[in-house]
Amino acid sequence: METMRVYSKTELSFEIISRKWMCFIVHTLANGPKRFAEISAAIPNISNRVLTERIKELEDLEIINRNVIPHRPVRIEYSLTEKGKALSDVLNEVGKWAGKWM
Amino acid sequence: METMRVYSKTELSFEIISRKWMCFIVHTLANGPKRFAEISAAIPNISNRVLTERIKELEDLEIINRNVIPHRPVRIEYSLTEKGKALSDVLNEVGKWAGKWM
Q: How many CA atoms lie within 13 A of A36 on its CB side?
């Protein structure tokens, strides 16, 4: 039986960034709003099912916004919230670490 | 069939930090060398099998060192390398993000 221990905020954030593809999706949205197909194209190995799940989780976490653009047909784009942009900045630090040490 | 695309260093680093428990282990070693049992105790929900795997991966990535202390009995401790300490500093930024936004 898993021991129940309340995660600290730091551990909760590790839990989020260690969900497969989360970092990739935030990183992909760093340079502007994108449609589902554009995100999927930027992360070739992610399935549409998993991308749909991750997008929902990121919306629930208020890391991304879902923008409905009332064109004909309707366009749906995803963009980083302020919280998401702040996470993206931190992920850039991970990228700098990688650039130096990998 | 998964599309083969060469990951950038940044994406490779995302791949590492999104392996379950990797961040937790690096974070646990941030305040000094620890034995297997101490790491396991600090991360209650991780199994010994997975912890053994992750430790091997972190060693292969040169993020942690395995230190054999020639006591009787022999003591084995794990500690962060310079590369590991640099990653730990970045993970602290994730923690700060969490402190502000979670």
A: 14
What are the structural domain ranges in chain A? Answer: 9-101
Q: Which pLDDT does position B6 carry in this prediction? A: 62
pLDDT in tens, A5-55: 567 888 889 999 999 899 999 999 999 999 999 999 999 889 999 999 999
By Cβ distance, the residue of B10, B94, B102 closest to A98 is B10
- Token pair, residue B33, equals 């060398």
How far is A63 from B33, CA to CA, in rounded Å?
34
Q: What's the Rg (C-alpha) of chain B?
A: 15
Residues A10, B22: C-beta atoms closer than 8 Å: no
Q: Return the CATH number of B10-101, one of 3.90.550.10, 1.10.10.10, 1.10.340.30, 3.20.20.370.
A: 1.10.10.10
Could you tell me the fold of the domain covering A9-101?
Arc Repressor Mutant, subunit A (1.10.10)
Mean pLDDT of chain A: 92
Write out chain A residues lying below 8 Å of B99, CB-based.
9-10
